[in-house]
Amino acid sequence: MNGWVGAGLALVALVLGGVLLGWQGVIFATTGVVFWLLLQITRLMRVMKQAGAAPMGSVANAVMLASKLHAGMKLIDLITLTGSLGVKQAAETYRWCDAGGDAVEVVLRKGRLAEWRLVRADEAPGSS
Question: Where is the chain membrane-spanning (predicted)?
């Protein structure tokens, strides 16, 4: 969800709670907003714990990963899909490799997937 939409919904909940139920409605709406934020933080921590436990830049199957990617994908969804953190290649480029030598290089812009490229083991530079 867009950050502005989430903030707008939280503000609407607070105003609506205040109008309908007074200060108790504002407290109720605040409780709902805090609960939603805690759910988001819990999801993020779970994904980062899983990614931190895996070898950096590794993925089970690079070809399958490349087939599941789509433009605009959020970074958190990419990390969930790969199960590990990528190895930084350049300013915005990260790489995940599988056991067979195939790799996926992704370019992230503003935390979203902009482009990606599958590099097969037999096409990799230096392989003769």
Answer: 6-39
